Amino acid sequence: MKAKVSWLEGMCFEGLSESGHNLILDGTNPGKGVSPMEAVLLGAGGCSAIDVVSILEKSRQQITGCEVELDAERAPEPPRVFTAIKLHFVVTGQDLSEKHVARAVKLSMEKYCSVMKMLDKALDASSSYEIREA
């Protein structure tokens, strides 16, 4: 996998992925785009949500929605790395099995989500879930 990051102005950069997608990164707050650490946090949420949806669909669950609420703590001094991340999955569907949802979240966190697998070596990661009827 390859990518390129190019300076636009100030502390604003454009990231371009090998697949042709772009993302604005900004070191000012608020800026014109997400901060690099926000991008990491969003990556963790996106990666894990993809896993949960995929696992539930393969389990023939009638899923209609999936959101991940992320809460990260950072070290107070530079480098201000993440020290903890909590992921709360809100899974919506019809007649969803709690057993299947719990399994999907666990598999994502412990086995499939490559972003979380990288991050959990350096921080305290936890997850929770709730099921909402569609």
UniProtKB/TrEMBL annotation:
Domain of life where this protein originates: Bacteria
InterPro entries referenced in this protein's UniProt entry, alphabetically: KH_dom-like_a/b, OsmC/Ohr_fam, OsmC/Ohrsf
Protein name according to UniProt: OsmC family protein
Upper classification of the organism: Bacteria, Pseudomonadati, Pseudomonadota, Gammaproteobacteria, Aeromonadales
